[in-house]
Design goal:
It is a single chain. By secondary structure, the protein is an alpha+beta fold. Helices cover 16% and strands 40% of the residues. It has a 5-stranded mixed β-sheet with strand order 1-5-4-2-3, with helices on one face. A 4-stranded mixed β-sheet has the order 6-9-8-7, with helices on one face.
Length: 129
């Protein structure tokens, strides 16, 4: 029997070091590593790829000319299901994240906080009410 275990969002951003620093310092992720096209490293030189993680969630970033998103107006780029959304939102607020909305209860039974990262990527963190 097959089973899906996780989905890992991947975003294209113009500055990997700035982006990874933001996710570490403002969103509380850990730096899993950088890749310069030849090797994985903890020390970024001229990275083309990076990974951050928090708890069991990873996000991949690759370098491009500009941040790219396929998001429709009013939509999210990624939705994370979490436990403790109010505590998470408080942590984000303390660290200086740009909170667009919430935490707020939604009519579809979720409590969510919506933020925009340093590249304009919209991240939503929600839990069942």
């Amino acid at each position: 029997m097959s089973e899906l275990l996780a989905a890992t969002p991947q975003f294209t951003v113009p500055d990997l070091i700035r982006t990874v620093s933001y996710y570490r310092d403002v969103l509380g992720f850990e730096v899993a590593g950088y890749w310069d096209g030849e090797q994985v490293s903890d020390e970024p030189r001229d990275p083309v790829f990076a990974i951050v993680q928090r708890d069991r969630v990873r996000i991949f970033f690759n370098r491009g000319a500009a941040a790219q998103t396929g998001r429709a107006d009013g939509a999210y780029d990624v939705y994370f299901t979490v436990n403790g959304v109010d505590e998470l939102a408080s942590d984000f607020r303390t660290r200086g994240a740009e909170i667009l909305d919430g935490p707020e209860d939604r009519v579809y039974g979720q409590r969510e906080v919506v933020i925009r990262d340093c590249n304009g990527i919209v991240l939503t963190f929600g839990e069942p009410r």
